[in-house]
Design brief:
This protein has nine helices and three strands, in the order H-H-H-E-E-E-H-H-H-H-H-H. The protein is mainly α and 288 residues long. Helix 3 runs parallel beside helix 7 and helix 7 packs antiparallel against helix 8.
C-alpha cells in the first residue's frame, strides 16, 4: 500500500481505501512479484465470487437479482450485461449448430438447386427453407426470395456441401448478436404490458437481460440432464413458472394480471425468435 495522501490518478485527497473522486484503489500495482501476484489473485477470485453469487440468485430466486440491481444494491452482483456475456459465451460454445451432411442429396434453398443445374433423380430432396413463389407469394416472401435469388449464380456454381457449411458457420456468428440486439425491441413490448406501472424502459431491459440469461442457463442444465434421460426435458415447464414469479418479484402485481402477461410475453418472445431466425438465415445467405 502506498503512503501517499493523494490519489495517484487524479491527485485528489484520499480519505479511505478508494479515491472518492475517481474510484481508484490506493493499493499500488507495483512492488515485489509476490505482492503483485496476490493482488492479481484477489481480483480474479473477487470476480469469480460475484459470478457464482449472481448466478445462484438468478437461478433459484426469480426476479430477485433484477430487483436488487434496480433498487441500487449493485456492489455484490455482476452487472447484467457482463453476466449475460458470461452465460451466452458458454451457451453458444456448447450449442454449436452442426452442418447437415448433404453430399448425397439434391439440396434446395428456396427454389434454387445448389451445386448443379439439374436434380439427380436417384437422390433425395433436401430443402433448407422454402417459401411460396409467383402469384401466391406474399410481399415478405417475395422480398426473401429476392435476397436468395441474388446469390443464385454463386449457389449453382459452388458445391452444395460447401455452401451449406458456409451458411451454418455464418449462422453461428450472426445469431448471438441478433439475440442481444432484439432485447431492446422486446423491452418495448414489456413497456406496453406494464404501461400503468410507470416503470422506466431501463428497468424492463434489465429484467429481460436477466431473464434471457436465466433462460440460456436453464436450457444448458435441462439439455445436460436430458442427455442422460429424455424425461428431464419435462423441466421446461418451469420456464413460464419462473417468468411469472420473476414478474411478481419485480413488478409487484397479482398473479391474475401476471399470468395473462406471461402468456403474451412467451408468445411475443417466440415470435421474435422466429423473426430473428429468419433474419439470421438471410444474413447467412448474403454473407456467402
Amino acid at each position: 500500500m502506498t503512503n501517499t495522501t493523494k490519489c495517484l490518478n487524479c491527485n485528489s485527497e484520499l480519505t479511505g481505501s478508494f479515491c472518492s473522486h475517481c474510484g481508484q484503489s490506493i493499493k499500488s500495482r507495483r512492488g515485489p512479484i509476490w505482492q503483485v501476484a496476490k493482488q492479481f489473485s484477489d481480483d480474479i477470485f473477487s470476480i469469480d465470487s460475484k459470478v457464482i453469487q449472481s448466478l445462484f440468485v438468478l437461478l433459484v430466486k426469480p426476479g430477485q437479482l433484477s430487483k436488487q440491481f434496480l433498487d441500487g444494491r449493485r456492489a455484490s452482483v455482476l452487472p447484467p450485461v457482463r453476466l449475460y456475456l458470461v452465460v451466452s459465451i458458454l451457451f453458444f460454445f456448447i450449442f454449436q449448430i452442426p452442418s447437415p451432411d448433404v453430399s448425397n442429396k439434391n439440396v434446395y434453398i428456396g427454389d434454387i438447386l445448389l451445386g448443379k443445374e439439374k436434380a439427380d433423380k436417384d437422390l433425395q430432396k433436401f430443402s433448407l427453407i422454402m417459401f411460396e413463389t409467383g402469384e401466391k407469394a406474399s410481399v415478405v416472401e417475395n422480398w426473401i426470395n429476392g435476397i436468395i435469388n441474388e446469390k443464385e449464380a454463386l449457389m449453382k456454381s459452388t458445391n452444395a456441401q460447401i455452401t451449406i457449411n458456409n451458411m451454418f458457420n455464418n449462422l453461428e456468428s450472426v445469431l448471438p448478436n441478433l439475440l442481444i440486439l432484439f432485447l431492446p425491441l422486446f423491452a418495448i413490448i414489456l413497456k406496453g404490458l406494464y404501461l400503468f406501472k410507470r416503470s422506466l424502459y431501463f428497468d424492463h431491459l434489465i429484467f429481460l437481460l436477466h431473464f434471457q440469461t436465466w433462460l440460456m442457463g436453464a436450457i444448458l442444465i435441462i439439455y445436460g440432464l436430458a442427455l442422460q434421460n429424455g424425461w428431464w426435458s419435462a423441466l421446461s415447464i418451469f420456464i413460464p413458472i419462473y417468468l411469472a414469479k420473476a414478474q411478481k418479484t419485480v413488478y409487484s402485481q397479482s398473479y391474475w394480471l401476471i399470468i395473462p402477461k406471461t402468456i403474451l410475453i412467451l408468445i411475443s418472445y417466440c415470435g421474435l425468435l422466429i423473426i430473428a431466425g429468419i433474419i439470421a438465415f438471410l444474413s447467412a445467405v448474403t454473407m456467402l
